[in-house]
Every structure is written in C-alpha cells, then in structure tokens.
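Hi Y.,

Following your request, here is the sequence exactly as I used it, all 228 residues.
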Amino acid sequence: MFQKRHLPFILIIAVAVGTGVAGTLFYRAKVAESARAQSAAEVLHIAPGTKPGAVPPHIRGRGQVIIEEFADFQCPPCGTVATILHQLEEEYRGRLRIVFRHFPLDGHQHARLAARSAEAAGVQGKFWEMHDLIYQHRTIWSTETDARPHFTRFAETLGLDVVRFTADLDSPEVAARVAADQERGHSVKVSSTPTIFLNDQPVPPASFSPPGFRTLIDAALAAPTPAP
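Below is the corresponding structure, written out as tokens. Let me know if you'd prefer a different format.
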C-alpha cells in the first residue's frame, strides 16, 4: 500500500532529478563549446576591424623577398605552384618568404571546406602539414560527393584532436579567417587562382615555373634595398 500511494511522488522526483541532470549536462556542454570557440579565436587572432587578410598570415621561410600566393585547394594549377614554391623556399632558405592566402572559388564544390580544414588544423599548429596533405590527395577528395571524411582522416593522420578539429572546422572563427584572406584578395583585384605577388608586384602566369620564379627572385635579391 505504501509503495502504491507514494509511487506518483517517486516518479515526479525521478523526473525532476533527471531533468536537472540533463540541464546540468547541457550547461556544461555549452560552457565547453564556448571555451573551445574562445580558444580558437585566441589562436587565430581574429579581431574586428583588422585590415583585409588573416592575421597573422601563414608564412613559410624568412627573407627579404616575399611571395604572396592566393590559392584554392581544389584548383589543379594551385597544387602545382604550391609544390614549386615549397621547393624554392628550401632553395632560397633565409632569403625567401612564402605567404599563403585562401581564395576558394565558388565553382569548386569543396574548396571552402578544404580551406576551413587547413585552418582547423592550424588551430592545433598543423596548418602547413594539412595544407600539404590536402594538395597531395586533391584528385581523390575533389571528386567525392562528401569530402569531409577525407579531411577528418587527414586530421587523424596528423595526430590532431579530431573532436576539436571537427568543432573548429565549423566554427565562425575559422570561417572568418578564410573570409579575411578572400577579402584581401578582392582588395588587390584577385579574381582567379593561383594569383601571385612578389614584393607586392603581380607575377605573370607565364612565370609560374621554377625558372620563371628564379628569374624574378634573383632580380629582387639583386635590387638595392630601399633606405629606411
């Protein structure tokens, strides 16, 4: 009799406790999500009112000659140029800097997701490693209906925290960084990829070869250094 009379009250208490636990878990999840987003923003240095171009940019090498590349990961010539520039950075070590800028084209289905994947890896310090993997396997993921599983596997290959990678991939901070590079591209009249500038001067596509780049780099190195 006691059990039957008090059963409704027991059920009410159980429901209340369950609701409280669920609410606590939801709150903790939202707090964790907020902390993750803040961490991504801190790593990516996203700030309102900055000039066009992600800050800091992704740079390979050090030197007085600066090549700024606007590229789309799904663009075949961009992959070829990326390989050439990496080789030149090694060849001109200490004299050449390569600056990478995202410029995903609307006609390429997975280009923006690829750019965000590179940035999500960058949050964990692996931008260039992801950049290289994406280009190396472009002919595979670019033909898929859904390329996301490929980028997730790349993250696993690089030893990234895949849960965080997946969350950062869709974060507004990562999207803002890609958009900032694209805005910079528009500000300097970029309309196709690859588009390349050497010390702020446009490089003609006819020079997108090792000999062509070497000629321009050597000329820039030989030019008198402007007075401060």
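The chain has one domain: 58-222.

Thanks again,
Q.
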